[in-house]
Input
Amino acid sequence: MRKKIFIIGNGAKEYALAKKLSEKHDIYITPQSDTLKEFATCLDIREDAIEELLEFAMENDMDMTVATSDKAINAGIADKFNDNKQQIFAPTKKANELISNKTAAKKALYKLRIPTPKFGIFDKLNLAIDYIKNQKIPFVIKTNNPSSAIINTSADTAKNIIESILIEKNNKIIIEDYVYGTPFSFYAITDGYKALPIGSSINYKYSLEGDGGQLTNGMGSIIPNYKLSVENEYYLMDNVIYPTLDYLQMTENQYLGIIGVNGILTEDNKIQILGWQSFLQDSDSAGILNCIDDDLYDLFEACIIGSFSDEFDSLNLNNKQSVSVTLTCKYKDNKENIISGIDNLEDETLVTFYPAVLKNKYLEYEAKSGAVMIVTSSASSVSKACEKVYNELKDIDFSGIYYRKDICAFNK
Output
């Protein structure tokens, strides 16, 4: 039976989720996007306008709301919907603070004795400057902004960055050791008590090939992470996911939703945890969701109503190997910028659009500056998936197109 599902969020991950759910259900989503209108009903409601969002859900008999937007979650949407007996798949505001607040996350990692790179937290300039005098280069500076991580190879440059951040009152910075290895994400779905893994990825976050340039929200990924062993995954569940959920329960902040763990797998097969995140990263979303054969609605509802432990001993995960590549646009002119070649892609190739992509009166897609789309191919092996996705990308073109050509380079 088709259900009415209301999704709140504004990114590529929401597009991937809506597309997956639309195969079996009727999707309503906010904010609006030209590309989402192809398979969902789009609404013009702000992500943090929780009274208005609740009103829509109640007046239109939504069977479930899924909030993946940090704005909505941090505005307390789960608390509001729960108070009004509306089914919502999302963590509460208090539960999400551990996820969204990087300084709180680092303190919790230390308290829970979860391995994490050595760090210091500062709100005073002189203390931060003293700290970096003896800091081994490179090192990382972070704030609570989700995409704020900066890798520093010079103490002088770092000093300028620290000054620019701490000049604002109430700002805090984290200075963290840089750890060499393979960046990964590991995801689990949970009702706050029981958790089941849903997938993992190798992250490519640097903007340039060879891991150069700036850190981004994701230039590509390999799913699942072939470097994570079964033992590594058991370790993550037993020593990271469950201690986190137990800690939140103890503070009466039960976490419901998809929880992500971001970390580094070192060359000697040790794991260092950088932090957590609510839901999936944009570049991982299509590949992870493509591996789940269960109806997502059934999974989400079981978590909401408290039947997750009884209904799901394990998940139906297929063996698809996926490679995703993010396409960006460096073309900053306001002139029309048509995306060509999408109609030539194979049917099983997944295209995940960012909200900035427009559709003109001729039903042609138009790229804007910044992140444009993610292309994901799947196959029986990583090397075949990699070959497929790059063959597909040869057909796609628009002015200012850029993407990394070394995703999965070890197998090319």
Observations:
- Residues 4-90 form a domain with the Rossmann fold fold (CATH 3.40.50.20).
- Residues 230-250 form the longest helix (21 residues).
- The CA atoms of residues 188 and 225 lie 14 Å apart.
